[in-house]
Sequence to fold (588 residues):
Amino acid sequence: MTLRRCLVSLSWMWFLLSMGQSQRAEDDKPNIVLILADDLGIGDLGCYGNDTIRTPNIDSLARDGVQLTQHIAAESMCTPSRSALLTGRYPIRTGMVSNGNIHVIQHLGVPAALPNNETTFAEVVKSQGYSTGIIGKWHLGLNCLFRGDHCHHPYNHGFDYFYGMPYTLVEPCGVDHSRDTELAITHHVWLIVQLIIVAALTLTVGKLTHMISVPWSLILFMVLLIFLLGYSWFSSFTDSRYWDCLLMREHEITEQPMKAERAGSIMVKEAISFLERHREGPFLLFYSFLHVHVPLPATKDFIGTSKHGLYGDYLEEMDFFVGKLLAAIDDLGLRNHTLVYFASDHGGHLEARLGHVQLGGWNGIFKGGKGISGFEGGIRVPGLFRWPGKLPAGKVIDEPTSLMDILPTVAALSGGIVPQDRVIDGRNLLPLLQGEVQRSEHEFLFHYCSKFLQAVRWSPKDSAAVWKVHYVTPVFNPPGAHACYETTYCQCVGENVTYHDPPLLFDLSRDPSESTPLTNDTEPFHDLVIRTVANAVLEHKKSITPVAFQLRKEMNQEFVSLMSCCGVFPFCLCDKEEGEGNTIRWIN
Fold:
């Protein structure tokens, strides 16, 4: 009897110990909130030196956490940069490039997409028991073979919940004063079409069963009328706002076309709702802002409130939404158990202008911007981490880091495993953020414009220098400008780029604006640097496995069969968010 009691007691002790260890393992897994702005310039934030645009909530992340001053995007355009963020890999490895100057997904109705065999940070943490959600912009593809197959939906890349825009903001997505009228007309036209369909079917059945005597020509006329109405309706809505500017909740289209000025307030509510549903954790929330991409559809509450026109208004609205998200984390008691990260997908869009009014961001002292992958203005972005009690407050790190570092960092946080069957270009940032090491693991970073290598950054371990070697630079236009105003974006290849042999050399530690190339006469290590970087390029290229280019011309063409529709094609206009407010109230 005594032996039996001992065995029972030991069994219970083992069970309780196992449960305790399991609970501690769960407690050690922090919640993760990743916030990504769209087209935000590094010079737009107060914590990076801007003293005219108010960004107190974003700035608080720098004050209460770690600020990176040399945080680098893997590309200078949306689609490839975001693919690198999610996968920890250069876009050239995942195929998110083209062999020309178009290196983003151009429409929602194209088959181009992030391949499903790529592993994202969402999949890594999901395998560790995390709930995962994405709110906001996707821009990594949707359909494969037909509308509604959603084979490239975020759900197929590790996310449990999605609310947002499967494409991206474009100019036609702006405020549309005819939208409500078009929605009403669509409803009535579709009702008429349904009545004609019912009548045609009824007459056909009656004719075949000899219950109704009508000529076949009448039935044929009704069928032709249905097709004529459908074709005429589709032809009337060729503008991309009807097919690209839409919002989805999970697999359901909720707005087509979207009411862009309302989207931001709905998205922050969706994000807070996600936090509330998963407050017991662990969770990963990827909040992918539509802000501050043109056409800058700010709400009325923010229009005219900044010193920098509509762009400043829209940026200050984004900061307000960041504040609402951070406040929700605090109110739910999650502050000390949640790592928050903030960045931009690439530099500000210098060429975004309306006449002489600037509609794009400011990249501070750095040359170039969106679409320019070689110069710092296109790829150096804000990088902020906050995790109270785990990361030092107010720390500034001037070491090369990358958006690709998020996947291995998130893997380390969650206890997940970085994919072992492929090259991962990112590095775990936790030792650097926590002060365990002082130098970045990135000795070399390679700067691509689509499939074309434009520049390479070298940070020697035994030196404070940050060398930058340029093999290709864009031809700015008009002459004397630091952007490509005549072509909207600078190009990757062709007559509008300059090839350098020997390459240009800069030391970013002394010349961060890349204004004065170094020569043999001005830099004694010139030839050594050029040779070292050339050897690194050769080794890097050996590590690249050829894959199909997702953004090549034939994959980036719009197909009617892939155009999303919230109804019966082509009667696709809808608004299932009616009643949501168009204004928000500022709370100090």
User: Anything to note?
Assistant: The mean pLDDT is 90. The first helix runs from residue 2 to 27.
